[in-house]
Design goal:
three-stranded antiparallel β-sheet, two-stranded antiparallel sheet, disordered C terminus
Length: 113
């Protein structure tokens, strides 16, 4: 009898949210990129430049804009770029629960089981 080949698990890239330090799949986070034109949100995830990843939650973005985003991108964020990022934050949904993103992820994992 010949053995059937085992299917390999596809590798899923993991990234850390710079707002809450939670490790999640890359596609679950929003990429911010530092390019020669400045700091901007990378909707495709493929723009050239140094990137950082943040949850799609306002609390993570607020923490990131306080300083961890500039550290992660190794640059100073100009006032124009900061205003553009803050206007993007306003488009994000408001969190209804008073739980942290880490607790939200744990709840989602429990429901999946």
């Amino acid at each position: 009898m010949a053995k059937q080949p085992q299917k390999k698990m596809k590798h899923v890239p993991q990234r850390t949210c710079i707002g809450c330090q939670t490790v999640l799949p890359k596609k679950a986070l929003i990429r911010v990129v530092r390019s020669p034109e400045g700091v901007k949100v990378d909707s495709t995830g493929k723009a050239p430049g140094r990137g950082a990843y943040i949850h799609g939650q306002r609390s993570c973005w607020e923490k990131a804009l306080k300083g961890s985003l500039a550290r992660a991108l190794k640059t100073e964020i100009s006032t124009e770029d900061r205003q553009a990022l803050q206007s993007f934050v306003l488009t994000l949904p408001i969190e209804t629960e008073q739980t942290s993103p880490l607790e939200n992820q744990a709840v989602k994992e429990d429901k999946a089981i």
